[in-house]
Amino acid sequence: MPSEFPIPLPALPLPDAVPLSWYLILSAILFSLGVAGFLFRRNIITVFMSIELMLNAVNLSFVAFAYQLKSVDGHIFSFFVMVIAAAEAAVGLAIILTVFRNKQTLEIDEVSSLRL
Amino acid sequence: MHQLWLIPALPLAGFLVNGIFGRKLGKPAINAVAIGSVLLSFLWVVKTLFALGPLETTYTESYFTWIQSGIVNVGFDFAVDRLTAVMLLVVTGIGLLIHIYAIGYMSHEGGYYRFFAYLNLFMFFMLILVLAANFLLLFVGWEGVGLCSYLLIGFYFLKKSAGDAGKKAFVVNRIGDFGFSLAIFLTLVTFGTLDFVELTGKMAGMSPETSAGVITGICLLLLVGATGKSAQVPLYVWLPDAMEGPTPVSALIHAATMVTAGVYMVARAAPMFNLAPVALDVVAFIGLLTAVLAATIGLAQNDIKKVFAYSTVSQLGYMFLALGVGAYSAGIFHVMTHAFFKALLFLGAGSVIHALEGEQDLRNMGGLRGKIPVTFMVLVCAAVAIAGVPPFSGFKSKDEILLAVHAHSPWMFWVGVVTAGMTAFYVFRAIFLCFFGNYRGKAHPHESPLVMTLPLGVLALLSLGGGYIDVPHYLAPLFGQPNVVHDMTLVAISVGAGLAGIFLAWLFYVAKPQLPEALAKALSGPYKLIYNKYYVDEAYDALIVHPLRDGSRSVLWRGVDVGLIDGMVNGAGTLARSIGAGLRTMQSGYIRRYAAWVVVGSIAVVAAATFLGGVR
Description:
With 116 residues, chain A is an all-alpha fold.
């Protein structure tokens, strides 16, 4: 990762642009919703979707920072995150299908055979 | 080079052959190896001494540097001077005779090869002890003979009393050896060398005033070592018990050679002792005390070997008395004559025991004069020698000691004379009880074979005539000519005491056999006291052994071991397990709980970074 941070910022002519903090606040709200969904929902599919929500919240902050800093690093990161999220969705859904076939349930607390 | 190393190496070879292959060898082969190695060693000693001639200075052979570290530089060196020459001849000569005797004595015993292997090992270590040119090598021999003594006392290890006696000897000797090793360390720190010749050179330039305290300390610590090995008060208690071993062992190790190692060591350290008059006084006092104490105990013992054992302790006391008054050559002279007559006494006693098939109690003997005449005659020879009847060997050496003692302090002389009378009494008491009167036993006595009586005969000749070997004169260059006036009155007094002892023994045990019983009844208090050996063993048990054992059990075992050490180890285990039990609740197996922990953890990291200022 090229370490050009901090770089001398040119004065940006964007007087009416949305400030960075708003993006970050939105990202934090989305992330918290994802965490809450992950912790409190019992359906595996919902939990899975919560994970996607958290990932996208992080993507949002990456892109916001990248725009603010005029650097493409954040964009590249968010592409990587999307690729991995896609792969994860494929594997995760396959696992969920197998779990459902074996247990006939999508209740997450039923899937606890690793417990002592 | 005179190849001194061959002298101890030959018995070592005998030990290795008999110890490793003895189980498969026949008795003749074992005999040949055991006797042959000692015989060759003896011949080599004789040859070497002839080749070395008058030995006016110490002859040293250095083989290799043994320890080299800082100021410590100890060589593996052997040295021969006149003192060593006397000891070499005594050790190998008497050792050879006793080896030959043991062929007959041990012929019906189990563990035949083991016995001779140990005996050869003992010869090896004893010769190392005598030949050593420095204190550390002497200590090697010193410990080695202690080991052999332990092995041979416990030779009949199936008998509990024999095993206990072996352990007792070992433990008591440890106390003395502790003192000896401290003395060695102190010598090394003070003088930077352990070599006898170098030490003598350093002492020669010193007046008694310089560093008297350190030298006195060294000498007293050496004395502690000597009291252990040479069975002096207060560490003599192991020697009487050591009679559990086979009789040839009692003769060789616990009478003739090993127990005189302490005397030899003190004589070897004579240049130091001469600078420490206080230590010399302590030596003399301990010697006198031991001589009297052991002689009185010997008066009332009924086991023939116990009588001679206490006699050994008493005679060793005499030797220490001689050392203590500065008459080193007289002490070594008595070492030699004592080796002759005490070895003979023990071997004769062994012959009696052999004849009576294991009977050792004097009360079950009697009237054996006609049945085992050779044994009787040699025992009488030994008895007149130890009783100090002129002109036999004991008279010569005891006389030398008593005259030197008189020149030092007269009261010690008188105590010594009384002890000499007691010595004569108890030895002749044993002779009369054993050979006169009527036979009171059950076994059928038979005379011992030639292989046993032959060494007895040689030893008898030495006991009678050994006094004419002029050891004091021979040793004079080492220790100085003793300035003793041969006052005929004093000689007559000491001889008179011996003869009176013999007469009393005759009166008590031959002429009027009912007298001892009456006397014992009349003086029942003192009689009980000496019959029970002054309750010294009981006192040691009560004062040292029991407190030590109970203390170990309740404090060291239950307290320190179980409480502290086990507690620490178990505590570490319990701590780890309880931490694990606490942490295990986190691993519930529910994915959502894991996720909750992840959240908690990341919040904790962010909080820590924020408040502690890790990230700006």
